[in-house]
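Final report, results section. Input specification for complex C-07:
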Amino acid sequence: DIQLTQSPSSLSASVGDSVTITCRASQNMRTYLNWYQVKPGKVPKLLIYDASSLQSGVPSRFSGSGSGTNFALTITSLQPEDSATYFCQQSYSTPHTFGQGTNLEIK
Amino acid sequence: QVQVVQSGAEVKKPGASVKVSCKVGGNTFRGQHIHWVRQAPGQGLEWIGWINLTGGTIYAQKFLGWVTMTRDTSTNTAYLDLSRLTSDDTAVYYCATDGGRLHAFEVWGQGTTITVSS
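Structure output:
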């Protein structure tokens, strides 16, 4: 199974700041890496697919990068509504594992 | 956008079984793979498995033997059957569509809370 390790596990930032969350894979996954946003009591939302493609309707302040084993999600110009937990997930092979999540707090 | 609606919350006793449904609106069901994911209280997301367009299934190792996924194209509905439930299975269970193009979980159901308690 492919293991995904996210860092940091939590972070706190202010409105207007930029943050980067990283996701490291235990083996080469090309670009089969997706990012989701999960808010308490809400449905998970696909943000980025194929490592760097922005899902329709997602604000352009979200961006993804990387390939192989190292990936990143960057959020610029943070907004209060960006407070959530973010998960990376791989679709390269089954089981389609998730990272452990990064909890983002907006101060 | 495709609408995905799941069945309601259930409370079950240990050892019982439960069946969760996932109805996909519109005429897109036939073209969608369906994945199932769960989130236990305070935990992360866990992939359970998927059922593809033709009914083929792949389950994560830990779910082999007690989880069954099916789909009914006549009602545009996918199902997740869980048997021999334990308290560790208390979680929100989600279905999510995968049109095969994005290789991602595109549209999620609202989630079904399964509580296992004696």
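The two ends of chain B are 40 Å apart (CA to CA). The first strand of chain B starts at residue 4 and ends at 6. This concludes the modelling results for the funded period.
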